[in-house]
Amino acid sequence: MSRRAIPSRLSRDSRPCSLTRYHLPPRVRPGALITAVLLFAVQGADAQVPARTGLTISDVVRVTLRQSPRIQADAQQLLNRRGMRLQASAPFDAHLRTSLASARDNTIRPPTDALGRVSSSATDQLQYNASYEKQFRSGIVVSPELGVVRSHLVGGSITPTSTGVAAVRVMVPLLNNRGGEVLAPAERVADLDYRGSLEDLRHTAAASVRDAAVAYWSYLAAQRRMVVYRAAEERAGRLANETRALVRAEERPAADTQQLLANLATKRATRISAEQSVVTTREELGLTSGLDGADIPGLPTPDTDFPTPHTSTETAYAPDSAALVRRLTDLALARRADLLAAADKRRASQIEHDAGIKNLKPRLDLLFDVGYAGLSQGWGVDGFFSPLHRNVPGANTSVQLRYDLPSANSQAKGRALQLESFLEQQRIGEADVRRRVISGVATALKALRGSRLSLEESERAVALYQSTVENEKRKFQLGMSTLFDVIAAEDALTNALLAEIGGRRSYASAIADLRFATGTLVDPSRTFVTVDPAVLMLPP
Known about the structure:
Layout: H1 8-11, E1 20-24, E2 38-42, H2 57-67, H3 69-88, E3 95-109, E4 119-135, E5 141-153, E6 161-173, H4 185-248, H5 255-289, H6 311-316, H7 322-335, H8 337-358, E7 364-377, H9 380-385, E8 395-403, H10 410-477, H11 483-518, E9 530-531
Parallel strand pairs: 2-9
Antiparallel strand pairs: 1-2, 3-4, 4-5, 5-6, 6-7, 7-8
Helix pairs in contact: 2-4, 3-4, 4-5, 4-8, 4-11, 7-10, 8-10, 10-11
């Protein structure tokens, strides 16, 4: 199949040695500015290799990271956590307020003469106010304020009078939220929740790549099985033709032909079923990797061969290698993204729980006010703002200790109880993930060893049955063997070839499973998710 037949989503950026990046949300580092871009990268396993005409494992990994619905859904969840992180910092945002108001006050005075006439006067007021409030993460709140009021009697000859006030209030919590122990933890909780969601995304990416790789090996195995069944059908056809020639030469009875034609029909039916299996596994691969339904029928045939066991791997993965089990388990405990996410969420719950307990304390706040007031007369802008720096007799100060009497505070107590329960759930969840990780490593390692031994025996069986088939054919031609013996040998060879393909598929899938179990599909130390398809060809 030509390269043109590959769907556009696969052929995009087909240079094997390039990095393909995907715009999804980023990894969080404590104290660092969080941006809304996460870069996925695929390192080509076939670097320095010319472009191929078939579907490679690199193509599958690239498309999976770009289009997997599971990864895209987790990316959106990460963006949601990004918004929650911004929302958690809202209490520490500065607030600046200004106002400018103009008013006229008409005053009616009671009668002052014998005629009982009522008098009135009108006063214009112009008022400006500016205030600033900032709550620090230490719990201290600083509130500067500036205000000017100018009064002028309408129709009078008196110059307008302006009064100005400038003050700063500082509020220091002494019990509840002392040192920011109630409000500040919300930001740390949001940071840990964000990082946990990122680890969830990495875990989903690793699981998606593992599933896509297994689907790819199944697709390749289906293609190989179809080839085997076609070869078996061709052998059955040749045997039928050879037997017909022997029948015409009166060297074999005519009844042999019927048995061979029945065998040929059976092989043909099996081959048709194998072709349908190729279609099914191709669809599964396309759906797993996230391809559009219209692109799946155009997937080319697999071009990356099954991984081949190496001598060094056989030695390192010997059944009695206890050190290997410990090494892989330690590797998984340090790198598994789902375990890292569970730990982050448990730490976030611990911080939130501690803050909830401290929120049960009563409020005792120290308030300190310092400022001054001025008075002046005059027109214009200068006369309006002059009381802020003229005729200031001195500073005004006040100290206040404000205490809120304790109450039942059922809401805070109920919240603390919920947080305690949720923290325990997170601890249980983390412990469960940990034991599953440890068990998963042992199971995946055992599966790898078993598949390797099974593949070795399957290869030996294929070599032996190939010799058996040739021997039975020669014996049949010499009249020393029956037709049933030849067909049985042919079927045994077909089964051995199928078992070898199944063994190779199992070995390749076992590598992907062990890579996933040990957390070595995705590098957790990188600032963007990086998957090298080469890791799918060799155990960790």
